[in-house]
Amino acid sequence: MEDILLNIKDLVVSYNADDRTVKAVNGINITVKKGETVGLVGETGAGKTTTAKAILRLVPNPPGKIEKGEIIFDNKDLLENSEHEMQKIRGNKISMIFQDPMTALNPVIPVGEQIAEVIRLHQKVSRAEAEILAGKMLKMVGIPQERLNEYPHQFSGGMKQRVVIAIALACNPQLLIADEPTTALDVTIQAQILELILKLKEDFNTSMLMITHDLGVVAEICDKVAIVYAGEVVEFGTIEEVFRHPAHPYTKGLFAAIPLINGKKLKRLHYIPGLMPDPTNLSSGCRFNPRCDYKLDCCEKLSPEDIYINENHFAKCYLCAQN
Amino acid sequence: MSNLYAGSGKINESVKKRKKSQLKEICIRLRRNRAAMFGLSVILLLIIMAVFAPFIAPYNYDEQNLKMANMFPGREHIMGTDNFGRDIFSRIVYGSRISLQVGFVAVGIGVLVGGTLGSFAAYYGGVADNAIMRFIDILLAIPSTLLAISIAAALGPGLTNAMIAVGVGTVPNYARVVRASVLTVKEQEFIEAARCIGVKDYKIILKHIIPNAMAPLIVQATIGVAGAILSAAALSFIGLGIQPPTPEWGAMLSAGRAYIRDYWHVVTFPGVTIMLTIFSLNLFGDGLRDALDPRLKR
What number is the ipTM of this complex? Predict the structure, then answer.
């Protein structure tokens, strides 16, 4: 398969606290093809950000540890790379947009220099040339080049996120990881930033892994979506498939919890009863079974495999096997 | 990527402009701070005094005139004379050479060694942190004056050894201060962001962490210069530091101690000089911190 850029196989990441082990990621499988945007959706603590950090090999160790699995990027397992090799990949081939632009920029360095830094790290250019490229990047994300010399505190939140995007894309990476890039921004700016990311992604022909808990964002910009629950991908498929025919009860629950603007009568919003399982003490069987409305007898004992509904769509649920 | 270079002339100019303006901006911000400017001018005055001592001092620093011993300030000796009839003003002028040198060099040693140890310990954490900080704790457990005395005693008296002794005595303070501020900066997201774009460890420490952790260090260092001058004086007093007849403010103070009842001027002038120096250094340090931090821009 030539066109697969990123293939995460059976990734397991855990954090070791004093006397207990937090199983953050439990065998995640995700593939991202070249030029594709994959959404990673799940609630807080589902393991989305840990997965992203594992791709960049930035899981803080200790306490975090990548227990097993493979992360094949561009036909090479990232987990076998040395730290030095990873430094060459970070920011160059894979880069990341952070959730909170307020803290992702160094407050004492002008933004132009921060963009130039990543360029100078990965490309053989002089200081002056890097500054020129940084100016171009700034213009590309919609900030006047003259503001190159200004410090982060002189920018608004949305502008800072634009700078962060400029840094992420400065070296024309093959894969862009966006970790909730719009969560810290207000709604009008969210739309602008999403549009900008989408446009630049197409201009640079970059693949993207979009981490979010906003299904609206996913519908807007993703080609495929992976629903993550308790460190597992419970459903994966193209946007059309998953949004039209959600197969896993968790996915169904998520969709039911979206308020409808054109709803005729004000009803109480649907919610999924219960909480996510304690990641230090995961039960056997399907992780979702205590909260599931459609629970079968086997759900408590056996963990379902990926069951394919069609070639573009699978879910970890026995209900799919029944139908 | 080549098309990105088109129309680059204009930005090139603005880039050049920035390189200058950054320093300029710090100067402008510093100049706006009156207290800092006062401090700076006193420090500059002291430095000029130290450099041109032979031209400024009316007498030589070891010129004794026992007939004129313990003279009160007057026309001939504007700050009076000490018990050997030496001109106090001249000795203060020459003493600025020694005291400033001791102050800055000792703090330089402390900041360099302590800062390196502290940032290394904080950044890498774990075993490195434990090993370094326990070593620092051992140093810290010994009173710094006692530590300086034992080092000076081991190395022998003299200016260089006094500077080393005082400098090593201050290492634990700087290591602690730097470690604490590096620890807070290290956890911030932009450090992770820097790691995300593939910046190497030493560059993260030098470029991203140190500038953000500087503020407490600058303040500590300016106060430290003052402390170092005093420690050097203490060493001189017990005969392990600068040897007489070399004039040194602290030593003058100690030597004049015996005559304080009858001749106030013998201790007052060196004391006032030390106080003024320390006060100016502190004012300047505060101002410098404010000027260096772009977030405090008004």
Answer: 0.72
